[in-house]
Amino acid sequence: MVGNWHFIAISAVISLLALVYESILFYFVFLIWIFILYFQGKLERILLLMILISLAFFNFYFQEDNAKASDDHRQYQDVTLHGKITSSVHITATSLTFTLQEENTKEKYSIVHFPNEDAVYEEEVLLTLKTGATCKIEGEINHPTPPTNPGEFDFQTYYRNQGITSQVIVSNLEMLQCEGLNSLQFIYLLRMNLIERMNERLSEYTAPWVNALVLGDDSLLEEDTIQLFQRWGLSHILAISGLHVGLMIGMLYFLFLRLNIITKEKLQWVLIFILPIYALLAGGEPSVWRASLMVFLLLILQKLKLKINPLDTLSIIFLVLILFNKYFIYHVGFQFSFLVTFGLILSKTWFTSSHSSMYNLLQISFVSQMMILPLQLHYFHHFQPLSIFLNVIVVPYFSLFVIPFMLFLLIFSPFPMPLIRLLDQLFIFIHGKIMLILEIIDHFFHYPFVIGEISIGYTIIYYIIFVIFMIHLYQTKKIRTFIIGFMLAMFIIYGAAKPYFSPIGYVTMLDIGQGDAFIIELPYRKGVFLIDAGASFSFSDMQPSSKVFKSVIKPYLLSRGIQEIDTIFLSHSDLDHIGSVPYLISEIKVKEIIISEYYPISIEEMRDWTSHNINIRRVAWNEKIERNGLQFHVLSPAKDKHDDNENSLVLQTTIGGESWLFLGDIGKETEEEILKNHTNIKGDVLKVAHHGSNTSSSERFIDQLKPMYALISAGRNNRYGHPTDDVIRTLEERAIKILRTDENGAVQFLYKGEEGVFQTFLDQNK
Predict the structure, then answer these.
(1) Which of helix, strand or coil describes residue 681?
(2) Stretch 123-133: mean pLDDT, rounded?
(3) Closest CA to 544 of 573, 508, 571
(4) Is 69 part of any domain?
(5) Is the CB of residue 548 less than 8 Å from the CB of residue 536?
(6) FRET label pair with 219: which of 302, 346, 448, 458, CA 20 to 30 Å apart?
(7) Are strands 528-533 and 615-619 parallel, antiparallel or unpaired?
(8) For the range 452-458, what are the long-range contacts, defined as Cβ-Cβ under 8 Å and sequence gap of 24 or more?
(9) Secondary structure class of 550 (helix, strand, coil)
(10) Greatest distance between any 2 Cα atoms in the chain
(11) Is residue 703 part of a domain?
(12) SS3 for 140?
């Protein structure tokens, strides 16, 4: 098996892919490759048998436990659980969370407590919440529900891939009754104490960096910083992995050996002892386990005077971790960490061919970024091409200064406060300047390559071309390398350019709850238009939340490869129609906003829109607006009615051979006015006014329009009772097909030329 453990690891991955994508094609292609190698004499019979056994084993091992992916979507029912805490207890200012394994069913639950704003955790209760403690918990069960929009994060799959059945919300800590602990509690307790100590002795700026880079807790890092690192492919720096473990070991070697404190052999035994402990101390994430166990295994083998190549080491660690916890393999950090390390090991010979340190950094950055590119596109739908070059600068800075300095601060934190403050201020001065430079770079050079959703076929072809490219690059076949590199670049560009060659257009009514958000995508990506972009909001302060934009609108746009919007039509100024606009224009380029003559632009809106260089246009009644070949006819408002709803911008357009009416929140009075001003009006597809309120959709109006489809955007169990029974009855009596977000999720109209078809997201993803 020496030199062949990667075949067993690959068989595990193939088994998982075949199950996830429900396709035996993965097995078929893999077995063809394996048998070709066997008949070429490159695989021994015993290895072939091991591979076949591994395929069968992992196919059984990764079978999804559907009982844990509960189909019971009833929310907030009282439940009492008895079981053991199997994770560390994570405490922040806004939440307390841990995982509990139920003693009878062995199912795992995510236990969550959200303290009140002025609440203080009771120390007596906190002291009982320990890893391994046996607990009785009373709370409300919250089963994960499937996504209802394209591109939306799938919490149901996320929980299932962590082996968690459901979330249980505990309203009061008195409902947590725990006692006992296990042998690992002292490590988790030490970690909590160290994090708390850093927060007490260091500034609010420095402490989060120490906790993130040494102890694996990034909960106090600013969200803007995390987003900045994500945008530029620098997230691996914030996640403890091989870089951090390697630096820690290097510092220990330097301190203990250079100062002749202990011998090299004794230091290796010390490392063998502390590496597993540090993996737990650093949060126990898969990436830190991978790095720690690789060094651990290499040291053990060295003590046993056994040699093993790095690829076998990586493969064995991979297998050990997924056999220890099969849910590790679904962890994004786990996938990124192993894939990058795999690529770096295979590229080792290419790296050693260069004698330039800077060129080596560029090589490592290039291989790392290219290895994870398909995964990055799969999870985030975009990447930053310049991140390869920024990594060359930022990684050495963190390796040579930030991470060692953070380790130094942690180790010497017991020193007198004047010294700690001096070191703290030194870090703030240096790191603050560097972060400012990164923010400037982000401001002027952040032009992400948005590709959208990619298929598994696209991923496989990408890796085939990339492997061939790397082989020719190592063999220094310059002409062939250039040709294949050009093919690889064109293939990546093809992924982003697909919508520009597609004759299919889309109209999407997103499920944003109680609000409106329609997205029109013309064929060949000739134009992208939004009609309203609502948000959820608090009635106490009437401030819109970013939740709808971040969880629904933005993911949809990225999944469709949209990074520019030609026009946003705003029907009126209610937050359930415009609340997401500020968040939208801050992240997505918008060329134009169109509003009615009577839309009341606030000073804040005007400042915000103009600062983003958005053209603002008011349109009048009966005006016809053409954008990229699509014409919109303004049917209302004809005059100022001194009411936001009645002043809604009403648009008529023709898409896919059907006449569409977007009615905003108009009432029956305005409906009558439209019938009076446009006597021959028809509407095949009707965006039902005011979310199906009985103040709209009069029988006379519906009879005149004679729609075939009625689209209703309304929140589930909303406080207004929308859509009302009267409106539904009016539509059903006329045999009009009703499509509503609260029942169907997002609704899409796909069209080509004059033909189109409706589909609903929930029906498509049953």
Answers:
(1) coil
(2) 77
(3) 573
(4) no
(5) yes
(6) 448
(7) unpaired
(8) 452/381, 452/495, 452/496, 452/498, 452/499, 452/558, 452/559, 452/560, 452/561, 452/562, 453/151, 453/378, 453/381, 453/559, 453/560, 453/561, 454/374, 454/377, 454/378, 454/495, 456/17, 456/21, 458/374, 458/495
(9) helix
(10) 96
(11) yes
(12) strand
pLDDT score, position 128: 82
Domain limits at 199? 189-447
Structural domains counted in the chain:
5
Highest mean pLDDT among 84-93, 152-161, 595-604: 595-604
- DSSP E strand boundaries for 153-233: 164-169, 176-179
Instruction: Give mean pLDDT, residues 305-319.
Output: 89
List of residues 6+ apart from 56 with CB closer than 8 A: none
Rg (C-alpha) for the chain, rounded Å, is 29
Omega before 723 cis (within 30°)? yes
Asked whether residue 40 falls in the same domain as residue 136, the answer is no
171 and 100 in a common domain: yes
Q: What is the DSSP letter of 624?
A: E
Q: Is residue 67 part of a domain?
A: no
CB 502 within 8 A of CB 526: no
Q: How many residues does the chain have?
A: 766
Please, is 304 exposed, middle or buried when counting C-beta atoms within 10 Å of its C-beta (0-12, 13-18, 19+)? exposed
- Give the model confidence (pLDDT) of 205-260 as tens digits: 999 999 999 998 888 899 899 999 988 988 888 888 877 888 888 888 888 887 78
Structure tokens at 442: 């982000």
Q: Per residue in 387-417, is it b (16+ CB within 10 Å) or e — as a string?
A: bbebbbebbeebbeebbbbbbebbeebeeee
Of 460, 333, 517, 414, nearest to 30 by C-alpha is 460
What is the rounded average pLDDT of the residues 313-317? 92
For 258-290, the three-class secondary structure string (H helix, E strand, C coil) is HCCCCCHHHHHHHHHHHHHHHHHHCCCCHHHHH
- Comparing 431-435, 451-455, 610-614, 735-739, the range with the smallest average pLDDT is 451-455
* pLDDT given for residue 364 in this prediction: 87
Tokens of 50: 């091991």
Instruction: Measure the CA–CA gap between 492 and 446, rounded to whole angstroms.
Output: 18
What mean pLDDT comes out for the span 45-59? 94
Residue written as tokens 């944003």?
Answer: 512
Phi and psi based region of residue 148 (left: phi greater than 0; alpha: psi -120 to 50; beta: remaining): alpha
Closest CA to 688 of 657, 662, 660: 662
| pTM score of the predicted model | 0.89
For 15, the enclosing helix (H) or strand (E) is helix 5-20
The SS3 call for residue 736 is coil
Average pLDDT, the chain: 90
- With both helix axes pointing from N to C terminus, report the angle between 206-215 and 185-201 in degrees, rounded to the nearest 10: 160
321 lies in the same domain as 439: yes
> What's the token pair of residue 103?
């003693």
Burial-class residue 48 by CB neighbours within 10 Å (0-12, 13-18, 19+). Answer: middle
The separation between CA 505 and the C-alpha centre of its own chain, rounded to angstroms, equals 26
495, 524: one domain: no
How far the first Cα of the chain sits from its last, in Å, is 43
Cβ(337)–Cβ(344) below 8 Å: no
Q: Are 68 and 61 in contact (CB under 8 A)?
A: no
Which of 282-286, 429-433, 444-448 is the most confident on average? 429-433
Residue 518 is encoded by which pair of tokens? 């329609």
**Is the same domain home to 508 and 492?**
no
CB 708 within 8 A of CB 505: no
For residue 523, give both structure tokens.
Answer: 């064929």
To 5 degrees, how large is the angle CA 610–CA 666–CA 606? 10
Percent share of the chain, pLDDT over 70 = 97
**Judgement on whether residues 667 and 576 belong to the same structural domain of the protein:** yes
The reported pLDDT for the residue numbered 118 is 59
Cα 256 from chain centre: 42
Q: Could you write out the DSSP letters of every residue in 430-479?
A: HHHHHHHHHHHHHHHH---EE-----HHHHHHHHHHHHHHHHHHHTT-HH
